[in-house]
Specification:
Blueprint: H1 2-16, E1 20-23, H2 40-45, E2 53-56, E3 61-65, H3 70-77, E4 82-86, H4 95-102, E5 108-110, H5 118-127, E6 134-136, H6 141-145, E7 158-159, H7 162-165, H8 169-182, E8 187-190, H9 193-200, E9 202-203, E10 215-220, E11 224-228, H10 235-243, E12 247-250, H11 254-261, E13 266-269, H12 276-283, E14 287-290, H13 294-300, H14 304-331, H15 339-351, E15 356-359, E16 364-367, E17 391-396, E18 398-400, E19 403-404, E20 407-412, H16 418-435, E21 438-440, H17 445-457, E22 468-470, E23 479-484, E24 503-506, E25 509-512, E26 516-519, E27 522-532, E28 535-542, H18 560-577, H19 583-592
Helix pairs in contact: 4-5, 11-12, 14-15, 16-17
Length: about 600
């Protein structure tokens, strides 16, 4: 099937004289996860991971993906003509370098200009400048060969009340206009879906598990226009937005409207997000100030209302996850349980919580060697049955009225090897090291990442992903610009100064290919600590309330301080959750949070 699709694409390329065709994992807005309409890279390669790009020539097809997906991609590409390029590994070229090298002099490079950001396109233009290359970007060739392509999503737009947002759209627009003035701009073009939903206090369901709305926005000093499918906007929502100074226009009108609205303007936009076609439409009529969207930082620094709500969501989530842990421990070996039935039961427990809306991402329920694939996904066609031995890794989360959650627990289902206990204990130490950091204001996640990786680095080991990411507020579960990572990754905006109110995950792990995987994840709120003669110290508050499975801990690998940290965390979990449990479940909670 994949070979036939690639052959069909090559026929369309040949008709147009296109030498290389590029297919990213992207929608028109650079959203991390995309709706079914936009899964063109999956269609043409068969690889189902959330990150990766495809390149097709007349004699070669390649997929570039990162370390989270090496194992998965190798399996899914087996038997297809698609070659795997392991990003970040020695001798593996950057995709732009590969394209620049392979395209002939005077050749044509093709892609859909709406799904490629302007910054990437400009970089490719520079790298091919000496080859007199032309770009074919007006057509979506995948659309021509994808006969049963899903329709573009158009879910109803919902209002997100100040009871949860803590700030009106008018106030947010005032803040953004102040930022525009500071940058010398009198207009702002916005295409990032989470930024738009944050700014206008709206939510939707146009991307699975991401409550966003397919939309664009243009902000001037006296106007705010939301470009969205008008069929998605009820009269109530339209009137509420108008009351906040927001006009509605047709989604597809953005390309022509910017030419009419912005002549001779100085336009603030982020070329890493704005697609190539929209960028060129603005460039034709206005001066561009290329900067990160100011919404990103405002959105990441949660206000007091948001923080209180988020903690309420985590209590609900902790109840569900602890009940799941009780069920799993009680029934493993006594009844058939699979990766799928386990994740389905956890979803049922979340759904029982008041104010539950949706999962915040597809659950990862991975047993044994499957957990070595960081973003493994069990399917009805391929899943494992759980046995009373080894580890089950479950990475999951929920959207509630009050906020979103992301938690990973590695559950001990039965006997472990000494090596497994050692690695589990090491990952737990790593998690606690970071959670208990105290640092001077001005530090970034890169300054702190070694606290998590240190215990593994001491053993000559590592994990091929970041240690943590920012968390959206009933929005993207992965949110810029905060994160924990030991080096700058250019395509990831996650190395800002850590500010009070930012929420970041703490999720070190260890993955042994063919063996097992371990990850322990909590969410941390950045808070101000004491201020001394040396400056303002910062610290973290852990807001994930669920026991960490102590059955995998080997105490001889823990210091006195390690034990104190683990015990303090579990005391907090017990005190937070005990009002919601009784009987056997309360006894289980007490046992699971026992002192070591």
């Amino acid at each position: 099937m994949i070979k036939e699709r690639i052959d069909a694409l090559r026929i369309e390329m040949k008709k147009r004289g296109i030498d290389i065709y590029y297919v990213p994992t992207s929608d028109f807005h650079e959203t991390e996860y995309v709706g079914d309409f936009f899964k063109a890279r999956r269609f043409i390669t068969g690889f189902t991971g959330s990150a990766g790009v495809a390149v097709v020539t007349q004699d070669m097809a390649g997929l570039w993906t990162d370390g989270r997906y090496f194992i998965q991609a190798e399996k899914q590409l087996s038997g297809t003509p698609v070659r795997l390029f392991r990003m970040g590994m020695e001798d593996v070229p950057e995709v732009t370098d590969f394209i620049a090298q392979k395209v002939p002099h005077g050749g044509i490079i093709g892609f859909d200009g709406r799904v490629v950001n302007a910054n990437w396109a400009k970089e490719l233009e520079k790298k091919t400048a000496d080859k007199a290359v032309t770009f074919s970007v007006e057509e979506d060739l995948i659309d021509l060969i994808w006969k049963d392509r899903p329709a573009l999503s158009s879910s109803p737009v919902e209002l997100f009340s100040e009871q949860y947002s803590g700030c009106s759209t008018q106030e947010k627009l005032r803040l953004i206009r102040e930022d525009m003035k500071k940058e010398g701009a009198n207009a702002h073009v916005l295409s990032a879906l989470d930024n738009i939903c944050w700014l206008f206090n709206i939510r939707g369901n146009d991307v699975k598990h991401f409550p966003v709305v397919l939309s664009y926005a243009v902000i001037t000093m006296d106007r705010a226009v939301l470009f969205v499918n008008p069929m998605s906007v009820s009269k109530e929502v339209e009137h509420a937005l108008l009351d906040q100074g927001v006009q509605i226009r047709e989604y597809d009108q953005i390309f022509e409207s910017v030419k009419q609205m912005l002549p001779d303007s100085r336009v603030l936009l982020d070329s890493r997000i704005v697609n190539m076609r929209l960028y060129r439409a603005v460039e034709d009529t206005a001066e561009i100030i290329d900067r990160p969207n100011p919404e990103v930082l405002h959105q990441a620094i949660k206000n007091p209302v948001e923080l209180e709500n988020i903690k309420k969501a985590h209590v609900k989530d902790g109840i569900a996850c602890t009940k799941f842990m009780y069920w799993l421990k009680k029934n493993i070996g006594n009844m058939p349980i699979t990766e799928l039935s386990a994740q389905d039961y956890l979803a049922e427990l979340r759904a029982q919580q008041e104010g539950f809306l949706d999962l915040s991402f597809d659950t990862i329920s991975a047993y044994g060697s499957n957990a070595a694939m960081m973003h493994y996904s069990a399917t009805p066609e391929s899943f494992s049955e759980l046995k009373p031995e080894g580890f089950l890794l479950v990475d999951s989360g929920g959207h509630y009225l009050e906020g979103s959650t992301d938690i990973t627990r590695t559950f001990v289902l039965g006997p472990l090897t000494d090596e497994q206990k050692k690695m589990y204990t090491t990952v737990l130490r790593s998690n606690m090291n970071l959670a208990n950091a105290r640092f001077l204001y001005g530090c970034r996640g890169m300054n702190l990442d070694i606290l998590a990786r240190g215990p593994l680095w001491d053993m000559g080991l590592d994990y091929r992903c970041g240690t943590g990411h920012g968390v959206g507020y009933r929005l993207n579960i992965h949110e810029a610009p905060n994160g924990f990572r030991w080096k700058v990754v250019p395509e990831r905006n996650d190395s800002c100064v850590l500010e009070e109110g930012m929420v970041t995950t703490d999720e070190p792990g260890y993955y042994e290919e063919g063996g097992y995987g371990i990850r322990i994840e909590n969410e941390l709120v950045c808070r101000k600590g004491p201020k001394t003669e040396y400056g303002q110290f910062m610290e973290f508050e852990t807001i994930t309330y669920c026991p960490i499975d102590l059955d995998g801990v080997e105490e001889r690998y823990l210091t006195y301080l390690d034990k104190e940290r683990i015990n303090a965390y579990h005391r907090m979990v017990y005190e937070t959750l005990k009002p919601y449990f009784k009987g056997e479940e309360l006894e289980f909670l007490k046992y699971s949070t026992r002192a070591i």
